[in-house]
């Protein structure tokens, strides 16, 4: 076997380890994939020369002589698994395999030949058969499979010689519990590499495994850590591009992605210390006529509350909040209408996702300065990013007494979605209605330095447009009529489905 590979210093240390299972935290582009591929090839070479001989205990149980050759019972002779969180995330490993494995080893059937093993690189099944041609080998057939961990119960096999678990931070513990016993299968090498970037949660199985093996290195387990900058083969231009990304994303995301550093908060997105610093204001009961106000409105869904938060547009200080629950939509609309008027709010950002569109249309048709905002994975990530930077820079504030907002902010965690983006969620499954209203209100506020005309908008993040304040304009008469018609239709739908009563309408 011959393949092109020159290890960097951290990879050399990784290869020199004699541990059976190697655990890796490495930043993007650190070279962990290439390092694991090299280990995989070495494992194949070792397995090819290793017969399966009955030991004393096995011989006694099977009534065989000690040392009896059972190699021909292994099916396939050499078995390799590459496990990813899902097939979408396995694509990188699959492509690297195709580049790394010598093409002369790949088994291809002749045209028209039926049955038998091998058909080149099976894109549909994500598998490939290899045949080793070197002399003096006891095992020659190699079967490599890509497996998805999204359904842990599907991870069934007699046991591989080598398991490569990639993007382990996104793999469920139930899947690891299925995979770990396979590394003790009779007749197999039972070697493996478990790699990824640090999980957000310190309770994640991958986090616990890394920390334990780091503190207790043995012939079975050893941990390795590498940043993106430990890849000595990256050019200075490539390294500069990685550094530049730090200005366009939250620090904890950049640190985790490129420095392989686990967040200090155990998974929380916002730093608790910064949340406490921001909670230095006082609540107001009445508006100051000399100030200009904006607001964010998060509409209750299922068991959530409807939350309306008013901010001083220039200071970005939240000054008033209203929480509603248990009332019908019509009552809520009347209350919101009244508060917008009382505070002379110039711009209200409204969560119009789902049935919230009904409320938004009603407020708009009433001539109120509302702007629709629909939550999606990308738009929410941009909102959270904006708020993160505001907290870090001390340019957002709210009343000291708002414990609910503080608690919900501290509860926000983040995880990759599997498609290159991120999903925000609540660690304790608590509501996030106050957070959403606060984020929307900040979106409507002036950028920092607006008063002096020296502000800059955030740059876009990978295919994501920055969220920028927009001027609130009263809709045209035509648009008002269209929205009134839509609102009437939606209210009728809600009434017909007993979501509101005809009396309250």
Comma- or semicolon-separated keywords:
505 residues; alpha/beta; Rossmann fold; Nucleotidyltransferase, domain 5; 2 domains; 7-stranded mixed beta sheet; 5-stranded mixed beta sheet; 15 helices; 16% strand
Write the layout of secondary structure elements.
Elements: H1 9-16, E1 21-26, H2 32-48, H3 56-62, E2 78-84, H4 91-100, E3 127-131, E4 141-148, E5 162-165, H5 173-179, E6 191-196, H6 205-215, E7 221-226, H7 236-244, H8 251-259, H9 272-278, E8 293-298, E9 306-312, E10 317-324, H10 329-343, E11 348-351, H11 356-365, E12 370-373, H12 377-393, H13 403-411, E13 412-416, E14 422-426, H14 433-444, H15 477-496
Parallel strand pairs: 1-6, 1-7, 2-4, 2-5, 5-6, 8-11, 11-12
Antiparallel strand pairs: 3-4, 8-9, 9-10, 13-14
Helix pairs in contact: 11-15, 12-14, 13-14
Short précis:
By secondary structure, the chain is of the alpha/beta class.
What's the total count of β strands? 14
Terminal-residue CA separation: 77 Å
Placed side by side, the strands forming the largest sheet appear as 3-4-2-5-6-1-7
Classified in CATH, the superfamily of the largest domain is P-loop containing nucleotide triphosphate hydrolases
At the first level of CATH, the class of the largest domain is Alpha Beta
Largest sheet: 7 strands, mixed
Alpha-carbon Rg, integer? 29 Å
**At CATH's second level, what is the architecture of the largest domain?**
3-Layer(aba) Sandwich
> Looking at the chains present, what oligomeric state does this protein adopt?
single chain
Q: Work out the count of structural domains.
A: 2
Question: What is the H/E string?
Answer: HEHHEHEEEHEHEHHHEEEHEHEHHEEHH
Q: Percent of residues in beta strands?
A: 15-25%
Number of helices: 15
CATH topology title of the largest domain: Rossmann fold
Structural class by SSE content: alpha/beta
Low-confidence stretches: 453-475, 497-505
- Mean model confidence by pLDDT: 83
Shape verdict: elongated
Helix content: 25-40%
């Amino acid at each position: 076997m011959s393949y092109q590979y020159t290890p960097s210093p951290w990879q050399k240390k990784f290869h020199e380890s004699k541990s059976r299972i190697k655990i890796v935290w490495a930043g993007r582009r650190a070279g962990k994939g290439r390092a694991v591929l090299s280990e995989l090839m070495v494992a194949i070479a070792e397995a090819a020369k290793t017969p399966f001989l009955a030991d004393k205990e096995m011989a006694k149980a099977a009534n065989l002589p000690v040392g009896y050759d059972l190699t021909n019972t292994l099916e396939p002779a050499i078995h390799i698994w590459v496990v990813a969180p899902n097939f979408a995330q396995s694509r990188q490993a699959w492509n690297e395999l195709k580049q790394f494995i010598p093409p002369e080893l790949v088994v291809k059937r002749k045209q028209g030949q039926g049955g038998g093993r091998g058909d080149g690189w099976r894109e549909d099944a994500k598998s490939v058969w290899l045949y080793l041609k070197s002399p003096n080998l006891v095992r020659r057939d190699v079967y490599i499979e890509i497996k998805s961990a999204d359904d842990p119960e599907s991870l069934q096999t007699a046991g591989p010689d080598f398991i490569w678990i990639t993007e382990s931070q996104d793999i469920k513990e139930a899947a690891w519990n299925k995979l770990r016993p396979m590394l003790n299968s009779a007749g197999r090498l039972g070697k493996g590499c478990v790699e990824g970037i640090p999980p957000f949660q310190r309770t994640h199985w991958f986090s616990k495994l890394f920390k334990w093996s780091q503190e207790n290195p043995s012939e079975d387990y050893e941990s390795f850590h590498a940043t993106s900058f430990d890849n000595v083969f990256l050019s200075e231009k490539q390294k500069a591009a990685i550094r530049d990304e730090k200005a366009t994303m939250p620090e904890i995301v950049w640190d985790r992605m490129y420095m392989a550093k686990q967040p200090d908060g155990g998974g929380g997105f916002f730093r608790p210390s910064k949340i406490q610093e921001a909670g230095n204001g006082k609540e107001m009961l009445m508006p100051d006529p000399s100030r200009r106000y904006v607001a964010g409105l998060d509409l209750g869904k299922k068991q959530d509350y409807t939350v309306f938060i008013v901010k001083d547009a220039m200071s970005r200080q939240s000054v008033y909040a209203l929480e509603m629950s248990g009332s019908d939509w019509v009552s809520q609309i009347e209350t919101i209408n009244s508060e917008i008027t009382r505070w002379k709010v110039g711009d209200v950002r409204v969560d119009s996702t789902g049935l919230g569109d009904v409320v938004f249309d009603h407020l708009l048709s009433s001539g109120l300065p509302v702007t629709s905002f629909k939550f999606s994975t990308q738009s929410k990530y941009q909102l959270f990013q904006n708020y993160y930077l505001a907290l870090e820079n001390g340019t957002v504030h709210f009343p000291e007494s708002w414990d609910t907002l503080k608690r919900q902010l501290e509860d926000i965690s983040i995880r990759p979605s599997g498609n290159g983006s991120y999903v925000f969620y609540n660690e304790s499954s608590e509501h996030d209605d106050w957070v959403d209203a606060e984020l929307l209100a900040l979106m409507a506020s002036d950028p920092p330095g607006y008063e002096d005309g020296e502000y800059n908008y955030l740059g876009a993040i990978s295919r994501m447009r920055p969220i920028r304040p927009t001027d609130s304009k009263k809709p045209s008469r035509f648009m008002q009529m269209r929205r009134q018609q839509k609102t009437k239709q939606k209210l009728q739908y809600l009434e017909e489905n007993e979501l509101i009563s005809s009396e309250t309408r």
